[in-house]
Amino acid sequence: MDRNVETFRTLNLSIDISKLPTPIYIVDERLLEKNLKILKDVMDKTGCKILLAQKAFSMFSLYPMIGRYLSGTAASSLFEARLGFEEMKGKEVHIYAPAYREDDFDEIIKICDHIIFNSFSQWKKYKDRIKAAVKEIECGLRINPEYSEIETEIYNPCAAGSRLGITIDNFRDEDLTGIDGLHFHTMCEQNSDVLKRTIEVVDRKFGKYIKKMKWINFGGGHHITRPDYDIDTLIECIMYIKNKYNVEIYLEPGEAIALNAGYLAARVLDFVKNNIDIAILDTSAACHMPDVIEMPYKPKIVGAGEPGDYPHIYRLGGLTCLAGDIIGDYSFKEPLKEGDILLFTDMAIYTMVKNNTFNGVNLPAIATYNDEDGLKIIKTFGYEDFKGRLS
Ligand SMILES: *Cc1c(COP(=O)(O)O)cnc(C)c1O
């Protein structure tokens, strides 16, 4: 069978491949909904509220679906907050940022119902403006429990000298009037055993302050929708804090919402030989999957393996002039040919939001897939999207 046909059939995607524009992100609504059901189940079992952290996934054409399951959105900037406010109608809008710009704050007050501060000085600076607001806004402080189990420093909010959150030594009991909640975010792609150990530290260090709060936000980094995730331990952690302190619990995962729910489809354009076989694709690691270089990591491709798994080995490269625009080395059962479509997996999260047009490379189109409508192209991009940002 033709490789392309086989690939799409494996994923139960019925798509006219000859008409598929590439590169293209395809978010499978069936898989997204499966994730949302898992998250909703945690909400139903515990009474906690789960928010979409938009930093990981901001494809707002799907916000109505996400809003049917989750409690709202979490933002890390005014623009993200506005997106959540406008596109997930009637749901909660939470914001946290390491510092707020003076000229953003009036709009933040209009849009957000929960504002989390990174320091006592920011809280002090803005609290009168919040008090004067016409609507009720709940305020929180981000704490840094100085406990995390993240090995990659760039992703570790508790690394030595971190600017994210208030450490216990800098926490001031006397300034808590008007503060309704505490927020910590110390995890990254982790299971609930890490949460359990983190909660022990948060409880020990900050318990006397949690007592005075209405809510506590456990942040993101919970890989709840991963097959090996231990949901029972998550539920146990939520119920422990909820019952001990009589507070509401929020979680704001990003990855977990669209984990493994999307693909990036790209076509093979050409081949180059230089000791190894290299295939050039119509996508780019640097532009369309920057975490491949930044994190770094190697994405999986449907039907391909590590070098050695299958007989035909290729290095896959992007179409920018950056020497390091390499996705990685892969092996295939059959030799690749020009025009073959490769489907990179788990490409809904953190890729689309980090896209760029470096080197004048166009942005991938964005599509959804469901059983009723099949493939629906939501958006395509062009020259104006490249030019428009540059002067
Ligand atoms: C990044 C981030 C999240 C989401 O993290 P995921 O790893 O995508 O679940 C949530 N809250 C805050 C404050 C963040 O910075």
From TrEMBL:
Cofactor dependence: pyridoxal 5'-phosphate
Which Pfam families does the annotation name? Orn_DAP_Arg_deC
User: MF terms per GO, please?
Assistant: diaminopimelate decarboxylase activity
Q: Where is the Orn/DAP/Arg decarboxylase 2 C-terminal domain?
A: 113-347
Which InterPro entries does the entry mention? Ala_racemase/Decarboxylase_C (IPR009006), De-COase2_C (IPR022643), Nsp_de-COase (IPR005730), PLP-binding_barrel (IPR029066)
Listed under GO biological process in this entry are: lysine biosynthetic process via diaminopimelate; nor-spermidine biosynthetic process; spermidine biosynthetic process
Q: Where does substrate bind?
A: 255, 291
Q: Which UniProt keywords apply?
A: Decarboxylase, Lyase, Pyridoxal phosphate, Spermidine biosynthesis
Q: What is the name attached to this protein's record?
A: Orn/DAP/Arg decarboxylase 2 C-terminal domain-containing protein
Give the organism's phylogenetic lineage.
Answer: Bacteria, Bacillati, Bacillota, Clostridia, Lachnospirales
